[in-house]
Amino acid sequence: MSLIMLYVTNMLGYMLVALPFYIIGRIVFVKRMRSQVNLWRELVLGMFVLYMVGLASQTIIPQWSAGILAETGEFYFDVYLRSAQVNLIPFRTLNAYFFHTYTYVDN
Description:
The chain crosses the membrane at residues 12-30, 42-61. The protein is mainly α. It has one domain (2-105). It is 59% helix and 11% strand. It has three helices and two strands, in the order ααββα. The protein has helices spanning 2-33, 39-59, 92-101; strands at residues 63-68, 75-80. Strands 1-2 form a two-stranded antiparallel sheet. Strand 1 and strand 2 (75-80) form a beta hairpin. Helix 1 (2-33) packs across helix 2 (39-59). The longest helix has 32 residues, at 2-33.
């Protein structure tokens, strides 16, 4: 359960940053379309979009850290690319798991 909470807390930061952008973009879109606003639909759509942002933050967006070094007082910004952990090819992991990893099981 603690591992799940770790991912959820990491997702929340990205979701909170995306929230104002989503609200402003959605208001502009609805005003341009001049359509009826269904509050329930807007809430569900907003939750879905924010969940997708959070999910992308954990799977696609690289890990980064920023701050100020205590010794020198200089600003730093580091990006850690985890390209080995990103699975952009559909079913690549399942294919490797069933057909390549356990080939000695076959007759």
